[in-house]
């Protein structure tokens, strides 16, 4: 909410010369967070000028400029003795002004918002000695199509001559403070509400503008209105108050006064027309949204009802919308072709009006609607249609239901004063307001909850300062001390005060958050991190130590991301959970694999100059079941039963934790030590090996085909699960990404990636006892025995299977094994390859004999032959 200081000062006394920064600091003390300070950033000579001539000059580029002579009074070009009264020559590209018009001229030395300094400069064959300004260049709005002509602006020009200070005339020194309003403080979406909070913060006198807006008594002869909500939500009517007032004979050409336009712009809104500007001004001033209808386009009574099946509405933004039965509507009977009463839809109640009855340049009679709509109903409608408006923003936070008559009265006064209209003496006020809620409060409860000693008198005084009505009463029971209880009725503009804790928050807020002591809570004793948490931490630390950078990406994706990854149509990873209310309509699904978002992160970093990349992410994915599971919505009257909680748990989709990494560019940079090396598919496999090893288990690798990896350069990753039936289980894939995937995502060719189901890896590691305390073994002092084996195996025999067989056959004497050479060529049969392994044997308590080493070597060979590998001859 943006609040200009002069407007705020009309409702609360501000200190002399108070700045927006000082006012914002005072508001922060009562919980209104400062968002920024605006305005007051025009400096230097800015004066009123009268256009003497404007000569059009076509240019070679097809553009026509005006070479203007502008009278700026005593601020003319410098002469021998200083500024003269001669006119200045200025080049201007706009064409909406002419001789005789009063305009705003920024002279050399002025600085406009931006900052945008002004100087004399040569352009289009002339020396332009200043600038004729548009509204946007002055910070008065977004209009940049033409020059700001003062004679058409509605500003008071009595006594204004060329050379007059335009900064003072247009109020450009005024500052505006912007505050962030939390959802429970909807009354602060108005100057009235912010002024009230400033009074709470500083003790300054607050003058409620509503006190001066007492309308005449309502009559039954006003515009007919009927409240017909036959399907209320949560038992609450969608509309419980509706005020309708008519102003006739408005001059459709009457301009909005400049002071009102200026305040709208300072508050962040665009002036449109008198009737619309008045409704927006009243909303900003008091917090009550209004809507103006062209009364000549209405027929029959206004009916407030829920939508019917098949109804549609074209809203003011020009969008044709299909309506939902939960939508609350404003309707009438139209021109007769619609049939019965309430058959034509005029607008979405509390959200946006329809295009059929909007006020236009020909409107002379205006029907003003000032109503109170239910917060939940309005909020659901706005979200359902993705149609957030200034009105819905206020209604869904709660609007004062007693404010409607005063808001309508202010709008009527402004329309009659500035538009020349006449209000109908009869007007409508329908009320079906519920009784106010009374909250019972123990006066000792604030002290017990906050930790600050508040007396009962302080609690009462604070709540009355907020606007509550407080009744104090005592109870006496035999054998117990006398107890005091407060019966608190919150003010009508505070629908958020519904329980004792809400009232305690108000006491703490107004008495000062700074008075609340800072005490560090004592943590409860615990067992520290779980085994899985320790394992995940080891994995992260190990990958970081290898040079990878951990990143965090949002888990939201679009349906198109599955196509970019080249997933087959029947791939289960395409079955994603779609959010009802996504942060972005372009990414409405939860990711089913971490690479979907990590690759976007990698692409973004590569696009910003990172040539070599090694990043990883640990995060959850969402894997919904093939058949949708619905648990229903439990009631709020009592705690859900065990059956309902079990159904809710069953409806939550699986969310396993995955690890993914992306490698692009150089794995080893080129330099004086050598030419370097590009990241390859085996680097991705090695990242997987290292991560699994850090988790506490071992990885088996075999070739596979899986999108988004390149066929023939993709490895399937397996770990052996524990338990009574240990079998290898696939936990992920690694390798080089498919060229089409790299092209679709803007990645370099041969980018490599890995993705692991980290939860499955951890389960296998923990089942195998990875979290057990490891007993350190002494280093052997006996010599090492070395044996190298060159084996020939078919290409379809995985090297990992050969290595596993060698390890199993060699027995306990084997200390280490390493694949040091892979060969295919003339000396090896076609379809086969040579795998050379270095085996290292050692005993902890003796020097191995030649017979022991030979026996272990032969055992390894026999095991290798069982999987299809034979000794190379």
Summarize the structure.
This protein is of the alpha+beta class. It is built from 21 helices and 44 strands.
Distinct helical segment count: 21
CATH class of the largest domain: Alpha Beta
Looking at the overall shape, the CATH architecture of the largest domain is: 2-Layer Sandwich
Helix content range of the residues, please?
Answer: 10-25%
CATH topology of the largest domain: BirA Bifunctional Protein, domain 2
Structural class call reads alpha+beta
Envelope shape: globular
Beta strand count: 44
| CATH homologous superfamily designation of the largest domain | Bira Bifunctional Protein, Domain 2
Mean pLDDT level: 90
- As a whole number of angstroms, the C-alpha radius of gyration is 38 Å
Tally of domains: 6
Q: What is the spatial order of strands in the main beta sheet?
A: 30-33-34-40-39-38-37
Q: Major sheet: size, sense and barrel closure? A: 7 strands, mixed
The rounded distance between the terminal residues' Cα atoms is: 84 Å
How much strand content do the residues show? 25-35%
Low-confidence stretches: none
């Amino acid at each position: 909410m943006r609040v200009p200081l002069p407007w705020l000062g009309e409702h609360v006394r501000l200190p002399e010369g108070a700045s927006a920064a000082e006012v914002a600091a005072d508001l922060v003390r009562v919980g209104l967070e400062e968002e920024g300070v605006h305005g007051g950033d025009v400096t230097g000579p800015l004066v009123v000028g009268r256009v003497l001539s404007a000569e059009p000059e076509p240019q070679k580029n097809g553009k026509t400029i005006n070479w203007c002579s502008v009278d700026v009074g005593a601020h003319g070009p410098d002469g021998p003795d200083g500024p003269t009264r001669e006119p200045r020559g200025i080049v201007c590209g706009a064409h909406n002004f002419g001789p005789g018009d009063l305009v705003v001229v920024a002279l050399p030395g002025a600085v406009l918002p931006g900052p945008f300094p002004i100087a004399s400069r040569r352009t289009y064959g002339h020396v332009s000695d200043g600038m004729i300004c548009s509204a946007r260049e002055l910070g008065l709005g977004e209009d940049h199509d033409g020059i700001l002509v003062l004679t058409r602006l509605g500003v008071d020009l009595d006594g204004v001559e060329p050379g007059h200070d335009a900064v003072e005339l247009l109020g450009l020194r005024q500052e505006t403070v912007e505050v962030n309003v939390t959802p429970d403080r909807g009354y602060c979406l108005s100057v009235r509400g912010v002024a009230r909070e400033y009074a709470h913060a500083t003790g300054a006198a607050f003058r409620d503008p509503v006190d001066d807006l007492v309308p005449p008594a309502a009559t039954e002869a006003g515009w007919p209105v009927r409240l017909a909500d036959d399907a209320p939500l949560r038992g609450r009517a969608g509309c419980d108050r509706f005020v309708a007032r008519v102003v006739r004979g408005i001059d459709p050409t009457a301009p909005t006064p400049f002071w009102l336009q200026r305040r709208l712009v300072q508050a962040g809104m665009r002036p449109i027309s008198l009737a619309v500007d008045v409704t927006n001004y009243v909303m900003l001033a008091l917090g009550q949204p209004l809507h103006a209808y062209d009364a000549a386009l209405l027929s029959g009574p206004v009916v407030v009802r829920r939508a019917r099946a098949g109804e549609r509405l074209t809203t003011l933004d020009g969008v044709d919308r299909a309506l939902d039965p939960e939508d609350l509507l404003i309707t009438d009977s139209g021109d007769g072709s619609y049939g019965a009463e309430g058959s034509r839809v005029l607008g979405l109640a509390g959200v946006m009006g329809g295009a059929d009855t909007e006020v236009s340049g020909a409107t002379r009679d205006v029907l003003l609607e000032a109503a109170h709509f239910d917060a939940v109903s309005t909020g659901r409608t706005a979200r359902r249609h993705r149609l957030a408006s200034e009105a819905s923003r206020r209604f869904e936070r709660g609007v004062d239901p007693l404010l409607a008559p005063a808001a309508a009265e202010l709008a009527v006064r402004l329309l009659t004063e500035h538009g020349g209209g006449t209000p109908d003496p009869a007007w409508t006020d329908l009320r079906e307001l519920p009784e106010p809620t009374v909250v019972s409060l123990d006066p000792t409860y604030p002290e017990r909850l906050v930790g600050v000693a508040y007396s009962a008198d302080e609690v009462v005084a604070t709540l009355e300062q907020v606007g509550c009505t407080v009744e104090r009463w005592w109870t006496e029971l035999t054998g117990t001390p006398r107890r005091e209880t407060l019966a608190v009725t919150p003010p009508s503009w505070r629908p958020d005060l519904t329980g004792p804790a809400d009232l305690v928050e108000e006491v703490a807020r107004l008495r000062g958050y700074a008075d609340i002591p800072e005490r560090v809570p004592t943590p409860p004793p615990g067992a520290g991190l779980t085994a899985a948490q320790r394992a995940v931490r080891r994995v992260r630390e190990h990958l970081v130590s290898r040079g990878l950078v951990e990143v965090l990406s949002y888990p939201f994706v679009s349906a198109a991301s599955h196509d970019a990854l080249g997933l087959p149509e029947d791939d289960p990873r395409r079955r994603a959970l779609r959010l009802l209310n996504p942060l972005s309509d372009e990414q409405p699904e939860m990711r089913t694999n971490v690479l979907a978002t990590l690759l976007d992160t990698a692409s973004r970093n590569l696009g910003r100059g990172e040539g070599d990349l090694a990043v990883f992410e640990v995060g959850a994915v969402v894997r919904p079941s093939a058949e949708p599971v619905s648990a229903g919505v439990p009631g709020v009257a009592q705690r859900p039963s065990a059956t309902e909680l079990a159904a809710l748990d069953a409806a939550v989709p699986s969310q396993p934790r995955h690890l993914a990494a992306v490698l692009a560019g150089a794995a080893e940079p080129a330099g004086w030590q050598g030419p370097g090396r590009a990241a390859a598919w085996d680097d991705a496999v090695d990242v997987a090996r290292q991560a699994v090893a850090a988790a506490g288990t071992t990885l088996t690798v075999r070739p596979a085909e899986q999108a988004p990896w390149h066929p023939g350069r993709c490895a399937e990753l397996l770990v052996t699960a524990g338990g009574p039936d240990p079998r290898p289980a696939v936990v992920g894939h690694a390798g080089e990404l498919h060229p089409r995937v790299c092209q679709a995502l803007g990645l370099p060719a041969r980018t490599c990636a890995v993705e692991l189901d980290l939860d499955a890896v951890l389960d296998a590691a923990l089942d195998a006892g990875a979290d057990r305390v490891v007993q350190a073994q002494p280093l052997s002092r006996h010599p090492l025995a070395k044996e190298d084996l060159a084996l020939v195996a078919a290409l379809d025999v995985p090297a990992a299977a050969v290595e596993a067989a060698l390890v199993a056959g060699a027995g306990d004497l084997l200390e280490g094994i390493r694949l040091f050479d892979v060969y295919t060529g003339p000396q090896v049969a076609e379809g086969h390859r040579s795998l050379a392994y270095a085996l290292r044997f050692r005993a902890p308590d003796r020097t191995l004999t030649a017979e022991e080493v030979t026996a272990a070597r032969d055992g390894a060979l026999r095991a290798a032959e069982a999987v299809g590998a034979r000794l190379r001859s």
